[in-house]
Design brief:
Blueprint: H1 2-6, E1 15-19, E2 22-25, H2 26-41, E3 51-55, H3 60-71, E4 75-78, H4 85-95, E5 99-102, H5 107-116, E6 120-123, E7 143-148, E8 158-162, H6 163-176, E9 183-187, H7 194-207, E10 210-213, H8 219-230, E11 235-240, H9 242-253, H10 257-267, E12 272-275, H11 282-292, E13 297-302, E14 306-310, E15 324-325, E16 329-334, E17 347-353, E18 359-360, H12 364-369, E19 377-386, E20 389-395, E21 400-403, E22 406-409, H13 410-417, E23 423-433, E24 437-446, H14 453-461, E25 472-475, H15 489-494
Parallel strand pairs: 1-10, 3-4, 3-5, 5-6, 9-10, 9-11, 11-12, 12-13, 24-25
Antiparallel strand pairs: 1-2, 7-8, 8-18, 13-14, 14-15, 16-17, 17-19, 19-20, 21-22, 23-24
Length: 496
């Protein structure tokens, strides 16, 4: 990431960011980032990896705050803007943040807390200072960012990445997905996760493109942006999670035919559309291709590694598969004894590369436990290699159900259930059972309340072996999800 911060933009007047109906050039961004670094430094020459927690609305202020923290030598700690105080407090206290930065909208949320705990408090836009004449010299090994895992099984862990880690994650994707200064991308993702920070913002700005922000998701506004962007001499990009594509499809289906035709014509002008952060149902991929003309590029990544595996930008994008290892990333599949599995057998994904994070913040035991003795990062995700492409079977702790001596992929069952005409979405989990070890059960979001689960059971028995068929069904209004749209399966288990 240091290369991006240090270099002069090739076209300083080119638009870097569009937010709140205003455009900001690369020159504006660099000046504002330098200005904010000066504010953070005050009388110091270097923040020396001081943690700076920031709760800033998506847009120009977010990027200049993050860049300013890096330029001043600090560690950026993005806070989720929808979290309650208790969750924010956990991150601030775990990182031992020395400074808290907020948009004016969030001043009431954290000001009293910061005063009570004697933490320096900065409201974006209020402080002004002279530009620091000299900014600290930063080495690539310097810690740059701490992002927190979702914490579905225990307390969230702070994932520490260095400037070198971030630069590897960004430069690899820029090459693999052919980012350029002609690209314009819409950011609709939360910015306390790697997907939005790296794939959307950092990669686009690294290439000299333009990032446009939509702070609050609206299917109508996304389609309006598609239409507007198609009329410009730019290369349109769009990246989202499966839940967003699901919502866009539902909105598109509600529109009259003429409007659908116009939108499809707009979307076909785009260069690339990507899905990630959760498994992409094949049904969603196929439906989106029908309405947009785009076969979504599905990829695989984590907070700890950025992106590691991807379907090709040029070449076959295989439905139900996450693709092949990205350049500079090494992948292997291993069994429970940490031995590499034979081709075609399922195993845990392990990763090596410059993209892999440095450590879990202040958790040396957890850090040691997640790496093998020879330095492979253990993802906990189980996959199989299918004719050169990796296919995710699930997360070993939650998506691989051990029932009656079988290892069953919950994701495989979900794919089949989603093809039923009366089911709009679903999630499959294993619940403890004395006889079977775990019992396969399914939560269903239906579009027809007259669904007969006994008939559903007969239907699915014709499509998969009996041992994979759910033993219990639960009809719900919606599935519990985290900020990235992933179903929180431990919350779901409690419903059974």
């Amino acid at each position: 990431m240091l290369s991006l911060l240090r270099r002069q933009p090739i076209k300083p007047a080119k638009t870097a960011i569009v937010a709140n109906n205003r455009s900001y050039s690369y020159h504006d961004l660099q000046e504002a980032s330098h200005q904010f670094a000066s504010i953070l430094l005050e009388d110091r020459a270097d923040l020396l990896e001081a943690r700076v927690a920031f709760m800033v609305l998506p847009g120009f202020d977010y990027v200049r705050t993050q860049w300013g923290i890096w330029l001043a030598g600090g560690i950026a700690v993005p806070l989720c803007i929808t979290y309650p105080l208790a969750s924010l407090q956990y991150v601030i206290e775990d990182t031992q943040a020395e400074i808290i930065v907020v948009s004016p909208e969030f001043e009431p949320v954290l000001k009293a807390y910061s005063e009570l705990n004697n933490i320096r408090f900065i409201v974006v836009g209020e402080s002004q200072t002279q530009l620091a004449s000299v900014l600290p010299k930063l080495e690539p090994t310097r810690r740059a960012m701490i992002l927190y895992t979702s914490g579905t099984t225990n307390l969230p862990k702070g994932v520490v990445t260095t400037h070198a880690n971030i630069e590897a994650q960004v430069s690899t994707l820029v090459y693999a997905w052919a980012y350029s200064d002609q690209d314009t991308i819409l950011c609709v993702l939360p910015l306390h996760h790697v997907h939005g920070i790296i794939n959307v913002i950092s990669c686009t700005l690294w290439a000299g493109g333009t990032v446009e922000f939509l702070p609050n998701f609206s299917a109508e506004r996304v389609f309006d942006w598609f239409t507007k962007t198609a009329l410009q001499p730019v290369s349109g990009l769009f990246m989202a999670v499966p839940t967003i594509y699901f919502k866009l499809i539902a909105y598109f289906d509600s529109l009259p035919d003429e409007q659908q035709k116009a939108l499809k014509a707009s979307m076909t002008t785009f260069r690339l559309m990507v899905s990630g952060s959760a498994a992409l149902p094949v049904s969603v991929m196929e439906k989106w291709e029908t309405i947009s003309g785009h076969r979504l590029l599905e990829r695989y990544g984590m907070t700890e590694i950025g992106m590691a595996i991807s379907n090709p930008y040029l070449g076959e994008r295989r439905a139900g598969h996450i693709g092949q290892a990205l350049p500079g990333v090494t992948i292997r599949l291993v069994d429970e004894q940490n031995q590499e599995v034979a081709p075609g057998d399922a195993g845990e994904i392990q990763v090596k590369g410059a993209n892999v994070f440095q450590e879990y913040w202040r958790k040396p035991d957890a850090t040691e436990a997640t790496f093998t003795a020879d330095g492979w990062f253990k993802t906990g995700d189980v996959a199989v290699q299918d004719d050169g492409y990796y296919k995710i079977l699930g997360r070993s702790s939650i998506d691989i159900i051990k029932s009656g001596g079988y290892k069953i992929s919950a994701l495989e069952i979900e794919e089949v259930l989603r093809t039923h005409p009366q089911i709009s979405d679903c999630s499959v989990v294993g619940v403890d059972n004395e006889e079977w070890g775990e019992l396969v059960v399914a939560a269903l979001v239906v579009n027809d309340t007259a669904l007969d689960t006994s008939l559903l059971n007969a239907w699915i028995r014709e499509l998969m072996p009996a041992y994979k068929v759910p033993r219990q069904y639960l009809i719900v209004d919606d599935l519990p999800r985290n900020a990235m749209g992933k179903v929180t399966k431990n919350d779901l288990k409690k419903l059974f």
